[in-house]
Structures are given as C-alpha cells and as structure tokens.
Amino acid sequence: MDGGRYSFASSPKADPKAIVTGGKGSKYRFTVLTDRLLRYEWSDDGQFEDRVSTFAVFRKFDVPDFRVIDTKDSLEIVTQFFHLYYDKKDFTRAGLAVTVFLGNDNTWRYDGQNFGDLGGTARTLDNADGRIPLEPGILAQKPYAVLDDSKSMLFDGKGWLGTRVPNRKDGYVFAYSGDHKAAIKDFYRLSGSQPLLPRWALGNWWSRYHAYSATEYLDLVDHFKSDGIPLTVGVLDMDWHRVEDVPAKYGIGWTGYSWNRKLFPDPDRFLKALHDRGLKIAVNDHPADGIRAFEDLYKDVAKALDFDTSHEDPIRFDCVDKKFLDAYFDVLKYKLEEQGIDFWWVDWQQGTDTTIPGIDPLWVLNHFHYLTSKRNVEVLERPLTFSRYAGPGSHRYPIGFSGDTLITWASLAFQPEFTATASNIGYGGHYWGTRSNELTARWVQLGCFSPILRLHSEKSHWNSKEPWKYERDCYEVMKEFLILRHRLIPFLFTMNVRASYDNEPIVQPMYWNHKDKEASTVPNQYYFGPDLIVAPITSPNSKATLLGGTRAWLPPGRWIDIFTPSMIKVHRPLSKIPVFAKEGTILPLDVSPIASHGVLVVVGADATFDLYEEDESGPSAAGLPKEALVHTSIQWLQSHGVLRISQDTKRSTRKRHWSVRFVGQTSKKSRDMRTEDYSTVLDLGELKSGTSYKYLYQDLQLDVVDIPARLHEMLYRCESNYQVKGIVWELVTEDPSPVHVRMAKLYALDIESDIRDAILEIWFADQRALGKEGAGSRRRDGFTGTPSLNTTPVTRSLFGLRK
C-alpha cells in the first residue's frame, strides 16, 4: 500500500498465472496459492476482490504446479495434494467439492462455513468458568480446514477502511492432511507474520483494577524490588483517569482521558518515576463514550475537528470517521503519550457494530493502535498494543488480552488448552471465585510458561496478587517462578525471534509435532519452544499424597523429567510444575540473585541453541532482517564431550559471565566442575574471544534415577496407613517376583488411586534402573521391556530454584 499515514506493507493481488476463471463476465474465480492452499470466490456481478482483508494481506505467492480440466459444464483443478470439482454454478454442496489425496473423510463440500475442528480461540474469556466454545482455526483432524473470509473488513489502497460488496463469496481451503506446521507457515505467509515483541514485554507485568494513588503504586513497585521480584511492565487500570467525580450530566466515568488529580497530582512526575525504575507503562482505555466536555483535552480535540464546544456536546466515538480517528490518535492520545504512556490496553467490550455495517470497532482499534504505536518506536523499541482477539489476522497486533477470567479451578483447567489452541489460528486469573493459596500458585506457574505473564485482579479489598499477601509456601512459589520468568527472557526473546522470522509460535499443541493418537488427547499439555514440554497442574493437590497430579503423554526418547512412550499421570508438590526437557536440550538463562549460571545443558544427545538478542549499543532493530540481531551459537557435541560457545563480539558490548549447568548429570566431573542440585556446574567466566571450546567427558549420560530414594520420599509424605506404606515399599524394592506380577499385587491393594498413580510414576522412572529381576536392581543393560519415566525434580534443579 502506498500513501497515507495508515499505510502498511501488503501484496494483495495474486499472480495472474495462479488464477483460474471463466474469462470475462465469469462469476467464479479460483486462486491456487500453493499446491495445498486454495482460494475460492463467487461474485454475482462478475467482479472479484483484490483488496487487503483483515485476514489476507499477501496473496502473491510463487505459482505452484497444477493442471486444469475445463469443459463446458465443469471445472477441475488438480495439484499434488488435492482435486477440485466444480459445476460452474453458484456455490453449493453438490456443485463445489475439494478432495484431499491423503487421509480419511477427505472431501470438503461447500457450505459457506468455517471448519477447523482442532479449534482456534475466542474473542474473550469474560465470565467464563471453565471450557467455552472456540472459533475454528485452520487446523483439523480431517485432511482439510476452511476459512470463510466473505464478511471480513477490507482496506483500500491507502490503508483506510473498506467494506465488502454484497453477494460475494470468498474463502480458503487448507488441504494439509495433518501437516499442521506447514499449514500454519502458509497461514502466516498469507496473513503476515507475528511482529517481534520488545524484550521487556516478556518479563513480569503488574496490573490490578484498583484506585491506586501515585505514592501507593510507587511503593508497590519498590516492594517488588526489595523482595527481589523483577517487573518490567506496570499497567494502570481505569482509575488512572477520572471515574467517580464525573458530573452526572456527562454520564458515567467508564471512558476517560483526564488524569485523576486526586490520585495522581503530578502525572508527568509519576510516569517518570516509573520509567526511572525500569518499567514501561500501559493504561486502560474504554473508548466507547468518546470525548466529553469535562475532559482536559476536549477543546484540543474539538479544534482539530472544527467541533462546536459552546453546548458542551460530546465528541462521539466514531472509529470509521477518518477525521475523528486522526484527532483521536494525533491529539488526544499523542498528548498523553508525550507525558510518558508507552502503550494502550484497549479494553473494548461494546459489541461489534459501527456506523458502517460489516466493520467491527475492535478490528479498527487493534489495527490503527498498532500502526500508530510505531511513532513510539524510540521508546518502545517495537510497536505494541494490548487488546482482545478480533478474528483471523489478529496475531499481527500483539499482545492478546483474553479477558476477565474467574478465579476457579475450572477456569484454570481450561487456560493451558485455550493458550495452546490459539496457535491454531496463529494467535500465539482475575475476579470472583475464592481465595486459594494453592490455586494462585498454580496459576503463576502456568503464567511462567506462557507467552506473557501478567498478574491481575479485580477491584476488591479481598483480592490482589501481591505475593507477600499469601501464606509463606505460596509466597515462596510465586516469588521463585516470577524470578524464573525473568531468567527465561533470553530464551523467550529467541523464541520470539523464531516466531516472527520462522513462523514457529513458542506454544504449540502436542499434535503439531507428533502423529501419535495420544498426542491429541492431552489438550492441556504443550511444547514451549522446540525442546521443552509443559504439563501444568490445574487441579487441587491430593489429600492422600499431598501432590498435584496431571495426565501427561510424552513421546519416545529420554527426558530429564520423563521417559515414556505411553500415557501416565505425573505428580508434583506445590513448589513444582511438570516441565520436561529431552536429551540434547540447551536453554539459556539470565543470572539472578540466587543463581549465576547462564546455560542449561541436558546431555545424552547433540544439542544446539542459536541465541538472538538486540544490539544494546545500537539503534532499535525494529523492521530489520534477522541478520541485524546479535547471534550467539551454543553447541554440545555429545560423542566428543565438547561444549562450544561462539559469540558475535563485533556488534555486542554485553558482558556475560558464562556458567553452564549439566542438568541431571553428577556422575562425572573435572576439577573445575562442582555438583549442585542434581547437576554439575562449570564456570567459564567471561569469554575473551568470539569462540570458546571446553573439552569434557565423552558420551555423558543422565544419572540413573534412585527409585527407592524417590519412593521413600513420596511414601513418607503420604497421609496414609503405615502398614500399607510398608507393603508398598517391600513390593517395589524387595519383592523378587517379575515386574508384571508385582504390578498385579499393587493393583490388588486397597489404596487410594492417587497414591497408586504416584507409585507407578516413580516405579518406572528410568528404564536403566528397571532390571528384569526388580525395580531396585540398578541395571544399566538398556532393558526396554517396560515403559519408563524419569522424575528428576526439574522445576528446581533445571532452573536453579532454591530448595
């Protein structure tokens, strides 16, 4: 798009060679974007849509191989992956079909509906207590998915709003036969990639619906610092502006743009104080009521609009009026941003209608807020906004706000699935409920392994998320995982680069990477980056084991926390969350007050991690190619026992103390290595040259799990019958019977299922410790007759948390 302040990059017209139509006056048009992605169109007037839609921004693909069979009454299009059949009439189920060559139930027939039965996401979780219906994504269990784009908002050639011509049909068939990653990559090619987030957005956010004063808010931030809990973003909910003291003749204070001077007598000084403490600041905006006469900037906006202020009439919110939107951004918001507001939390909740039918105000707000935020690029490093999902294409306007969730176990239990499933459409706790230390701790653990972590709560004297307001055990868990979140920022930013440049979201459902049928039966479990698997605990601890449990499936291979090709149930105390790292994993971490190591290595296989960072000494890398980022390559060569770190020292002035933790490996160490929390630590210091090699032991392996010690620890804590504990102990560690016989004896015991499941998890914790004569034999003969899992306490040992 050229011209206009709201222009943005696009290439909406497809290559003519990829288009199949009946010629002049034809009412149908098909575009073969790839050999697995097809656009279909029907138009009563014989004209077709080449403008950008909210979903489709880049339709100019390389032309794939395909052939056309065209007769008087029918049309067929054949690629390597699908076969289209069409009767050349208005689209119907009988007249338009696409058969995908791979898979069962493989023929799609036109019905004007979206289809993607693996789900996508939803506009909001407001008031949701547990599972809610999700809009379709573009991934499916069937070989095809369909995205109907007939009603989406359009943009003209200068980036302004456009509407659809009636009686036109416009949609896309994704014929990917379960190749989910390929489907998502082409989705991003068509719709645009996820923008790169600023590094600070990946840290901890503080937010609360509460009428803070400037002093109270700064004291809060200082309390976090004194407790050693880092923050990078401070959010002010709606009480930053006048709410309670709005004169009745103007309505209520839901919308507002004038600082509440009773709470913030000197906004400029307050915002500077937050910036001086290293925080970026977002404020809440409910724009529906427009700009009213009591607002500080009412006359300024009115002047820009030539609006008569003599009657004190409100300036109506009309986001489809270009003149109003110019004044909204260039006068109203610009003057507030000059004071120090970094980005906006667009909290639109007033429906989907505007004065122009078919244009959703949430779409308008998300799109133009994001484009306008580019003017803050010197402050923000990268544009940013914070709002709800508006439909396919919303991934271009990060960050997504899921709405006001209820504080219940049912609500938490849906959160991991909701987050993971949103990736199927590229869209990579709050109020009510009851106070629960355990629930809060589990929620923060999930947040730690989510794309964004924001602490938030409702306007209630009884409800807030300050860690120090909870009982000691919960406080320690919250603190440690909030610290861990910041230590993960090097990893998170690199995953951010991977998502933006390589179209690989950080959160991916298990079925994206595994065809096993079990992979689709664990919706709450997900990949967090390429090598970590997270299975959050979203239910209360067992009263018998005092452990929280969750159902998990792990693919074949040895993992630092688990090794099994089957479905199991894993159990952890409140201080731990199941996070699994496979052999051959490298994870970079920032230092912290309690741990200085910067790299974690899980031995057992070769590993590589390409760390990407922005050049802290140069200008923002916004809009620059991937090559403009500072690159550090970290490699572990398993068979040779070589650790290699290659730094880009020419463009980076960042000083880093390199300390490497070999997780779950304590059996071998040299003089310059020490044992620490189930790991061996190697301090390398500050590297003097661009590349450093360290030669260690060849073919290092993870330690064999001490099953009796683990079992003893678990049984000792169980609130169960002492005699039963003795029977179980003897059965697992001393009974000479074959494993399958002892398993039958275990199932015959009258014990709680939670205890039995916890025993099984430990019993099969390491196939190398599971000899043919019994679990305590410590054999290393590679016995593989029984599935096994490794229950090293990853959350504390892998990430260096305190005991």
Task: Tell me how many strands there are.
Answer: 34
Q: Compute the average pLDDT.
A: 88
Distance between the terminal alpha carbons, to the nearest Å?
Answer: 56 Å
- SS strand fraction: 15-25%
Q: What's the CATH architecture of the largest domain?
A: Alpha-Beta Barrel
User: Could you state the oligomeric state of the chains shown?
Assistant: single chain
Q: How many whole angstroms does the radius of gyration measure?
A: 29 Å
Q: What is the CATH class of the largest domain?
A: Alpha Beta
Helicity, in percent?
10-25%
Query: What does the main sheet amount to?
Result: 6 strands, parallel
Structural class: alpha+beta
- Low-confidence runs: 562-566, 771-797
Count structural domains.
4
CATH names the topology of the largest domain as TIM Barrel
How many separate helices?
Answer: 16
Indicate the overall shape.
Answer: globular
